[in-house]
Write a structure and sequence with these properties.
Number of helices: 4
Low-confidence stretches: none
Number of strands: 0
Radius of gyration: 39 Å
Order of helices and strands: HHHH
Mean pLDDT: 85
Structural class: mainly alpha
Helix content: 55-70%
Distance between the termini: 79 Å
Shape: elongated
Largest sheet: none
Strand content: under 5%
């Protein structure tokens, strides 16, 4: 059987010899039990409560006014029927030939991309 008087004496000696660690351990133990009690109380009280839901219909005071959206510029095609081949008129309307500077920029960016991919491979 455990001799509780001896255990109590050992605890008293520990408190006398090492005050700061004993106080810190006591605080941690008290906080642990407080947290345990709070969790138990919340668990017991939390299961009995039902959220209150009311079916109140929304009745607007005024008519709903939608804000003005961005306007579509004249001649802007949102969609078009894709065809197998472009006609000459469509190619003139939708396709623009790149100039020399754009082609050089494209070539430079492609070369840089290839160099990044290959890196220092032999």
């Amino acid at each position: 059987m455990i001799d509780f008087s001896e255990v109590v004496e050992n605890v008293k000696d520990f408190y006398r010899e090492k005050t700061l660690p004993a106080i810190l351990i006591s605080i941690v133990v008290v906080l642990f039990f407080l947290a345990l009690i709070i969790f138990i109380v919340q668990g017991v009280n939390g299961h009995n409560k039902q959220p209150s839901v009311t079916d109140t219909p929304l009745v607007p005071d005024n008519e709903l006014i939608l804000p003005d959206g961005p306007s579509i510029p004249e001649g802007y095609a949102l969609t078009r029927e894709p065809k197998e081949k472009w006609t000459k008129e469509e190619s003139q309307e939708y396709f623009t030939m790149p100039d020399e500077q754009e082609l050089k920029n494209l070539e430079y960016s492609n070369d840089k991309l290839i160099e990044d991919i290959l890196g220092a491979t032999p």
